[in-house]
Protein 1
Amino acid sequence: MKTDRSGQTPAGMARRTFFLGVLALLAGSRQALANDPKSTFVLEARFVPQVVTSQYNYPAGTIVVVPSDKYLYLIEGNGLARRYGIGVGRAGLTFKGSAIVGRKAKWPSWRPTDNMIRRDPKKYARYAKGLPGGPNNPLGSRALYLYRNDQDTLYRIHGTTEPWTIGKAVSNGCIRMVNEHVEDLFERVPIGATVVVVG
């Protein structure tokens, strides 16, 4: 059987070339994934819903949002709270104090604010008449609408089409959650529930 100078047969050389090609392909795929947060998204364990000791002294059923920490708490009583990870948009950084859940919606429709349209008309003007609810809607699968004095504050706790932004400050929106997590919160919180946003 013929061998080359290294002592390898043609079949052995072919196998070696094949495996080197596979390794190069895997390396390229890994690099591509590293550059694409959508492909590499794995939610950090601390942002998965979990029951924790509560440091907030509010009645059971109160939602406490802490934008600076990227957490939302649903107070359960007896010193405990259910904690969720959140992403915080620009509007989410400006709202402080208390409100109530004035409305809830499944697969809510969405319209960018006038400020968003003015700031980036190329991106948002096409949605000026609104976008129906659905999997591609920025509000995700559920939304809780916060009210004060029977008026919509335009502050929302909602799902997202970008779950890799949980735990981060993002350019637009209010308080965003992984769709499955906001669906869980949606079922636990009635209209009229108190929401407190702290620093």
Note: The chain is about 25% helix and 25% strand.
Protein 2
Amino acid sequence: MRIIKTTDRDSGAVLKEIINRVSRDNVEIEKNVRNILSDVEREGDKAVIRYTELYDGISLKPSKIRISRDKVKGAFRSLDRKSLKSLNISAGRIRRFHEKERLNSWFTEEDGSILGQIRRPLSRVGVYVPGGKAAYPSSVLMNVMPAKVAGVSEIAMCVPMPKGDINPYILAAAEIVGVTEIYGIGGAQAIGAMAYGTKTISRVDKIVGPGNIYVATAKRLVFGMVDIDMVAGPSEILIIADENADPEFIAADLLSQAEHDEMASSILVTTSESLAKETEKELSRQLLKTQRKAIASRSLGRYGVIIITKNLTEAIKIANEISPEHLEVMVKRPFKVIDKIRNAGAVFLGPWTPEALGDYSAGPNHVLPTGGTARFFSPLGVEDFMKRTSLLSFSRKGLERIGDTVIRMADLEGLKAHGESVRIRLRKRG
């Protein structure tokens, strides 16, 4: 990894390169995805099957798009006891965390009026689960559990089958959290099927879940037809550390993100030059033992950096500017600085809180804003699967209290019929 100081002339350019590593406007990819979505909207299952054969090498019949209940139950039964226990423990912790997020409908009565907000769950949600470079049962738990807590009744899951089969851990996780339908398709065609609906797959209200650039682009393009969670980019971690931090811990946590894919970003921001050098040595040592060494090496080489700052205040300022998906704080008193941290998807405080806890079993959701969008996006949660409806009920007395104000506002905007709809009531005798 590169080591730079904030006093270096090119330090800003290095950070800008890392932050802007993902192009959000790939014209060629968007053109291809638009064609796929258009075909799926027009042809339905026929287009889904054609593109699945083209990209995944699988020839499907409409009756085979949906994964049978027998196959799901078989996968669940095939799991060893320890794996099943781990999935259940993780699911339980995620459920308990999200249960604390639930908000109820509310009503208030004042001056002859009843005002309120009705909160209802979405009826039908689509979940996309990647099935390419690795299997992600954790994505099933994290994307589905807040929807279940919200009260969503129908959850359709799409997962690609590049080798003609689905990882049993994904199917088992889906069974644990109560996915109602599973379809063995992926890519932009799966997003299109969930957004527009086909004969086999009913359209959904919202699509959530990570995917490659084609999936992310498809989600962005169908937004408005359906809701989406966010357009997520490659994974990223930023660690703020002082001289008290352990370089062995830091190196391990940087590698935990670098192994995701070649576009992942791992950044250490430290006040200690000696820690920077020790971490670089430790990274080289641990990298040799990493199973996904080639991926991690490319990630660290291209989008990894160690930044030496003048003080902790400068380190926090850099973190807020980058707005990372995952932010670890390994300083002597981490809770002392939490109020100064403004932008991060999730914050991990202290040396005994590695980011991997959040990925799997701690409880908070691991679907987090990336690419600097933590400035305005939040983690996936129960509220993302709810919709709000405003409620208003006025008595005659209540209308009389604000009627003149409403009429004046309507007159200001030149919408006389609006004002008349109030006047006609005020003229009416009880």
Note: The longest strand covers residues 113-121.
